[in-house]
Design brief:
The chain is α+β, with helices and mostly antiparallel strands and 437 residues long. Among the domains are: 186 residues, no CATH class; 82 residues, no CATH class. Helices cover 40% and strands 16% of the residues. The protein is built from 15 helices and 9 strands. It has a 9-stranded mixed sheet, with helices on both faces.
């Protein structure tokens, strides 16, 4: 067994003691109570504990949760430090350390690592789905000016080892397609494909080939990146009463039907970033192109967007955007502002990879890759819920470190607030989920 002393917990991750940690501890114990019931229900649905004699889904979940918040370089490091948290060891049912320096657990590291491949990742996906509903029910921050009906569609690439990920057809990685609600900071839909599947095929799998899912999007507006640009797909979205805003491809055939007068700006200042150049009614596409579709009565907005003050100081130059949309109820400036919200999903991907460490996967099998994605989303959603409880306006790496510190220092007394008395937690007994009091 690996033995890791308390000095293995990075000091940079230890926040100052105070009222904040006490409040986070109270909120976190309440979350763990609900999560225990959710995990056990999900494990039952997915049959995640079938043929398991000792290492059950909730124990696995506790180790993954600790690793997700720790930001450690490796899974083995998180496994070694986990044994120092008497509260989490008590909660997970993995044995109680005999001394503060004893980090031994009742499950070996090899069992832990193997379970990331052999236990279905769907059990964690169901827990993530439950947390998504909770985040959505939290509502919007009143200071947030992003429309609640706005959705952004984009993808990010996860690179995998060419030798270890032999199950991939091209062995270059996977693409994670994400439907993101920027007003809620919420990834609503996730679709994982190999890199041979382009973005247009990704939107087919994630939305257009899912009739019920497409119907639920009625009335919403999608901000779409150039990789998803397709007249036929835009036509299908409009047929389902789903709006869109997208950049225009340079090679698209355009027929201008009408020039709409553009109102001159009332004032000019450094903060006035958007300058509308043209607002036009156009027909997009050529009837000679049989592989595409012709879109009549579309709107084309051309605007010059100046960089913000910080980017300007770094030498950024104004960018000219040509945006096409089917929305005529908005002003030209509002169309540009909606498209600029697309950058929220880029910041979200950066948050997942840089702070939650999505790039450091739990393994190289297909199941481990999916489990890594679900774990990153789990950490993100729990951080959002904690952020709402603390009345904070934005997520931050500091809050991640605070949650990890509290997790690592949970005591047995904190855990007994979660566990029903006098029955101790024993996952081997297959106890039914407890109803929170």
């Amino acid at each position: 067994m690996a033995r890791v002393s308390e000095s293995s917990i990075p000091q940079s991750q230890t926040p100052e003691q105070g009222g904040t940690n006490h409040y986070v501890r109270r909120c976190l114990t309440a979350m763990l109570r609900n999560l225990r019931a959710d995990v056990e229900r999900a494990a039952t649905i997915c049959d995640a504990d079938r043929y398991r004699k000792s290492f059950f889904a909730f124990s696995h979940f506790c180790l993954l949760l600790f690793h997700g918040f720790s930001g450690n370089q490796s899974l083995r490091q998180s496994y070694g430090v986990f044994g120092l948290s008497s509260g989490l060891v008590e909660l997970s049912g993995l044995g109680t350390p005999k001394t503060p320096q004893d980090s031994s657990l009742s499950v070996s590291f090899s069992q832990f690592a193997d379970s990331n491949t052999t236990r279905s990742a769907d059990f964690l996906g169901l827990v993530v789905s439950s947390l998504m509903k909770q985040v959505f029910q939290q509502g919007l921050d009143r200071s947030n000016r992003i429309p609640s009906s706005l959705r952004v569609l984009d993808s990010t690439h996860l690179k995998l080892s060419m030798k270890l990920a032999s199950w991939l057809p091209d062995r270059s990685g996977v693409r994670v397609q994400c439907q993101y609600a920027p007003a809620f900071d919420l990834p609503e839909r996730i679709c994982v494909t190999d890199t041979r599947t382009n973005d247009c095929q990704g939107i087919d799998q994630a939305i257009l080939k899912q009739p019920l899912r497409l119907a639920r999007l009625r009335g919403q507006t999608f901000v779409i990146d150039l990789g998803y640009y397709s007249h036929r797909r835009f036509q299908r979205l409009m047929g389902a009463k789903v709006h869109f805003v997208s950049r225009l491809r340079t090679q698209v055939c355009i027929h201008i039907e009408e020039d709409i007068p553009v109102q001159a700006p009332l004032f000019s200042s450094e903060e006035y970033r958007i300058q509308i150049v043209h607002d036009q009614r156009v027909t997009l596409g050529s009837p000679n192109n049989r592989a595409s579709a012709v879109l009549h009565g579309m709107r084309l907005v051309t605007a010059v967007v100046a960089p913000n003050l910080k980017a300007k100081q770094q030498g950024a130059q104004p960018i000219t955007y040509q945006l096409t949309t089917d929305r005529w109820d908005l002003s030209a400036k509002e169309v540009v502002e909606i498209y600029l919200h697309r950058w929220k999903i880029e910041l979200f991907f950066r948050w997942l990879k840089s702070h939650i460490r999505l790039s450091r996967l739990l393994g190289y099998s297909s199941n481990a890759v999916h489990l890594s994605i679900w774990l990153a989303l789990l950490v993100h959603l729990l951080t959002l819920l904690m952020m709402h409880k603390m009345n904070q306006s934005r997520r931050s790496p500091k809050l991640l470190r605070t949650i990890h510190y509290v997790l690592a220092h949970l005591s047995a007394e904190d855990i007994w607030e979660i566990l029903p008395l006098p029955v101790q937690l024993s996952l081997g007994m297959n106890l039914p989920p407890q109803v929170p009091t």
